[in-house]
Amino acid sequence: MKKLIIINGPNLNLLGKREPNIYGSLSFTEFMDEIQNKYPNITIEHFQSNIEGELIDKIQDVGFDYDGIILNAAAYTHTSVGIGDAVKAIKTPVVEVHISNTFGREEFRHQSFISANAKGVILGFGLQSYELAIQSFIDVKSI
């Protein structure tokens, strides 16, 4: 059984309440319930923190034993060399995810310290971005 983890950064604990025009009205707990029901043959864990060091610790903790990490570092994507270095240091593939299209937002959100070391980047599809990332670990094919 594949073992994946979704790691969410700052303010994503407010999904369902925060700026529903950008992030939707579904809480992440409700979304996780849907995802776990949809993919019963995959272990999908979730971790969220507003603290940069806790995100780095979690990436390092799971980065050698899991089949995949789905990482939405939120605002830390654009500011944290440390998170980018943690992604580079581990063996587990990481898919960078964003709910919104970061390129359609403020210019500072166009920079990512994660993308260069990620397996791929998915953004702009709302919470479906996470599901697309899950699919990327299920449908791994040689090109």
TrEMBL record:
Q: Which PROSITE patterns match?
A: DEHYDROQUINASE_II
Which residues does the record give as substrate binding sites?
A: N72, H78, D85, I99, S100, R109
Catalytic site: Y23, H98
Keywords, alphabetical = Amino-acid biosynthesis, Aromatic amino acid biosynthesis, Lyase
Q: According to the UniProt entry, what is the EC number of this protein?
A: 4.2.1.10
For the site Transition state stabilizer, which positions are given?
R18
Reaction it catalyzes: 3-dehydroquinate = 3-dehydroshikimate + H2O
Uppermost EC category:
lyase
This molecule's function is given as: Catalyzes a trans-dehydration via an enolate intermediate.
Q: What is this protein called?
A: 3-dehydroquinate dehydratase
Taxonomic source organism:
Mesoflavibacter profundi
As recorded in Swiss-Prot or TrEMBL, the protein's gene is named aroQ
